[in-house]
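Bug #77: duplicate submission created two jobs. Keeping one. Sequence:
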Amino acid sequence: MKMQFVMLAFLVTLSAIEFGFASPNTVPAFLWSPHLQGGNGGMDEAVNYQVMSAKDLVDSVFTQGGWSNILCSEKKVEQPVVDVALVFIGRELLSSDVSSKRNSEPSLVNTLNGLFTSSNFSLAFPYIAAPEEERMESLLLSGLKQACPHNVGVSNIVFSDSCFVEDGMIQKLSDLQSFKDHLLSRKETRKEGETDLVVLCSEGSESNSQSGQSHSERESISELVSSVEQSGSKYTALYVSDPYWYTSYKTLQRFLAESGTGNSTVGVATTCDELCKFKSSLLEGILVGIVFLLILISGLCCMAGIDTPTRFETPQDS
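Kept job's structure:
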């Protein structure tokens, strides 16, 4: 019984360690459509609380989200027909930002919440783990080719210039207005039953300020969705914060850039910020927990090894 208690405590400690490492750098993903009625599982609303990789997310979008039936020509279903599959790849939200207003983008969260809850079909993935070696747009293309091995049923694929894709055959657009014009033109030329894939990658707030663009992620999503709805096209949409930007290196680089004075050379950090304090406290707690766990196991083993006599001999009279 005592050994079972020790194993239970050890498993709880491991789960706490895993959660502590995963939660600070996980990002959310939301899949929704006002024109679809349930995915492959037949559910109109679902939340997957598992911590998954970005590759597993892409696989889930094609399977649970039903995108394989929309984008693969050999799997296309007659009803319902989706004209546009929108993908928004952002850099502003962490998983903690969705449930907490601290250090979050409330306007972006509210926009996503409104689109998500008002749709007929919605699927949420709160915890997409970082780091990832590949960027989300590359994983999306790989997942599309894997889900549609024989023939991709996408009639037109468009990416923004800020997306990093190596396929030179893919058309790229420079700004939000170009996407709006493209959607309007495709509305006139798109044949019945065809589906377009439109991928918009966020350039980040620092890139927007340098290029003179003032469109935030919230504005880009709202304007692009409104443009699709006004054109009368049916759509399904996916928003995900790219885990690539939340690796340990990128996070450290971001904090160093924010603490810099504008020089190209960054000095050695001499202070410990909130992320540093969190990690140090977490590691300290883990080490202390391991020490106490070893002491507990050693004590139980020593107690189990004590062999106490069942009876004592009667002392002899002298």
